[in-house]
Amino acid sequence: MTAATDTYLLLRAFCQELARCGMTDACTSPGSRSTPLVLSLAREPGLRAWSHVDERVAGFFALGLAKASGNPVAVACTSGTAAAELAPAVIEAAEARVPLIVLTADRPPELRDVGAGQTIDQLKLYGDAVKRFVELGTHEATPERMRWIRALACRVCWTALDGRPGPVHVNVPLREPLVLDAPLPEVDPVPARSGGRPWVAHPIVPVASEPPPIPIAPTPRTVVVAGRDERDPALGEALAAFAAAARCPLLADPLSGARRGPAAIAHYDALLRDPQLAAELRPELVLRVGDLPTSKPLRAWLAGLDGVEQVTIDAEEAWHDPAGVVTARIAGNPRAVLAALTAEHRDTGDRAWLDRWQAADRAAAEAIAATLGDELSEPRAAAELVAALPPEATLFVASSMPIRDVETFAAAREAPPRLLSNRGANGIDGTVAAALGAASAGDGPVVLHIGDVALAYDLGALLSARRLGLDLTIVLVNNDGGGIFHFLPVAREGSDFERHVATPHGLDFAQAAALFGARHVPVRTPGELRDALAAALGDGVTIIELRTEREANVVLHRRVWDAVAAALS
Ligand SMILES: Cc1ncc(C[n+]2csc(CCOP(=O)(O)OP(=O)(O)O)c2C)c(N)n1
Ligand SMILES: [Mg+2]
Questions:
Q1: What is the 398 CA–ligand 1 centroid distance (Å)?
Q2: 292 alpha carbon to ligand 2 midpoint, in Å?
Q3: 3-state SS of 461-498?
Q4: How confident is the model at residue 313 (pLDDT cuts 50, 70, 90)?
Q5: CA distances from 97 to 22, 107, 166, 450 (A)
Q6: Which ligand has the minimum distance to the alpha carbon of residue 448?
Q7: Which residue has the higher pLDDT, 315 or 97?
Q8: Residue 109: is the preceding peptide bond cis (ω within 30°)?
Q9: Is residue 428 lining ligand 1, measured as CB closer than 6 Å?
Q10: pLDDT band for position 1 (50/70/90)?
Q11: CB count, 10 Å around CB of 229?
C-alpha cells in the first residue's frame, strides 16, 4: 500500500463517521496540501460539500449553516494563513455556541519550521476558542488506526454538540504523495457499523425536561427579559405564553423570537430612555433568558435595579451579567424551567402594573409612527422587514444599526420570521457569508439586513453565492459609512472622525451587483421596499438598496426619542 492509500482510507472513514453522526454539510476551500481532506469530504455520499475560494467566507458560511440547521458543519482548508482566515468564524462560533468542526491541513512534522512553503505553527491556532484541539498523525490504515479514526470522528462531533456547543479543531498533517495512483479499495480494513450507525453513538439528551424544584417565588411585579437564542425555535412562543399567564411584561429582543403575545412590550428601548418612567416601572423580580439584549437603556435600567432579584435561566455556562447584578442562576433548559414555573406564577402579576407598561408601549408606538411618517428611513426599513417577511423566512440581521433598529422599532408580531445574527462577538465581518450559509440550509428564503460598510467588508462572499447558485435577498442600508458612530461622542472630532471612524467610501453597489451577477434594485419608499422584497425572495441574489444620510439618521432617532418622551409625560 502507498502512503496515499492509507491517508485516503483513514480520511474516508473519518468523513463517513461525521455523516453518520448527523453531519450533512461541509465547506471546502482550494489548496494543494488539503487535497486528501477536501476530496474525502467531497466524495462522502452523506455530505453536501460547498466549495468556497476564500476561507474566511467558508468559515462564516459554515457558521451560518450550523446556526440555521443546528447541526455541526465541517470546514476544511489548506495550510498556512488559510487556517488563520478561519479564526473569526471560530471565535464567533465559540461565543455564540455553534458546533463547527475545523479541519486544517498541515505539513507533516519533518517539514515544519524548516523553510518549507506555506507552513505556520497551526498547533492550538485558535487557543481557548475551541472546545478541543486534536493533532492527527500520519498513520497506516491498520485495523487499530481505522477503529481509532472512526471513534475520533464521532468524538469530534459529539464534543462540538455536547453541553455548551462550540467549535473543535482537528489539525491534519498530510505527507506527499497527496493523490492516489490507483483507485481506493471499496472495502475498508475496518468497515463502518451495520445499520448506518456511527462508530460511537451518543444521543444528545436535551437538558432535563423535568428541572429540579426552582426557588423563584412569584411577585406582583416581575418582568421577563429575553435575548438572542437561535437554537430553540419554540422558546419564543414559550416565553410569550409564560409572560401572558403570569401577567408580566415581556421585554424581548426580536432575536429571542419572543416579541409576541399580549404581554410583549416592543418599545422598551424608547420607554426606558425616560428616567421617570424607568423609575416608575421598577420591578421586584427580573427573569432573564438568552443573551442580554443590545439596548443600552435596557442594560442601564437592569444595571441600576439595586436590591431587585435578577435570575438568569440558561442551560449552559453562559454568564451574561456585565453589570454584576444577577442574584441567581438557574441551570436548565429555559423552556422546561418556564413550564415548571407556570403553575405557581399564573395570574400573580399586578394587572394595573402590566396595564401601565402596555399603555406606555402603545403611546410609544404611536409617537414613533407619527415621527417616522411615510419616509423609508433606517428605522422604518427595520420595522418593515420584521413586519413584511413571511414566517417561513429568515431575517439575518447585521451588527451595527440594523441590529439596533430591529430591536428598537420592530413591532410585536405573532409568527414572526426567524431572526439570526452574528452577535456572539458582534463583528461586522463575515455577515454576507453567514447569511449565505443560512440560505444553504434550504429552510425558507433568507433576507440579509445590512449596512454598507459591513457589505463592502464581505463583498467577496457574493462569489460563493454565484458559484453555489444560492438565493439571498440583501437589503442594503447605504449611508456611505458607519452611521452608528454618529451616535457617539467621537462624532464631534471633525474630519478625523469622518475619515478614520465613519469611513465613507462612495461605492456604487450596482456595479458590485453586476460583477457578481446579482440584481440591484434601488428603493425610495416603504411600498417600493415591500414590492422589491416580494419580487426578490428566493430568486437568486438581489441587492435592494436604500440610501440614507448618517447625520439625518441621528437627528431622526433623537426626534423619535423626544416624541416618545413627550407622549409619556
Ligand atoms: C470585525 C469588526 N470590525 C470593526 C467593528 C466595529 N464596527 C462596528 S459598526 C461598524 C460600522 C458599520 O457600518 P455599516 O455596516 O455601514 O452600518 P451602519 O453603522 O451605517 O448602520 C464598525 C466598523 C466590528 N463590529 N467588527
Ligand atoms: Mg453604513
A1: 9
A2: 24
A3: HHHHHHHHCCCEEEEEEECCCCHHHHHCHHHHCHHHHH
A4: very high
A5: 18, 30, 5, 23
A6: 1
A7: 97
A8: no
A9: yes
A10: low
A11: 24
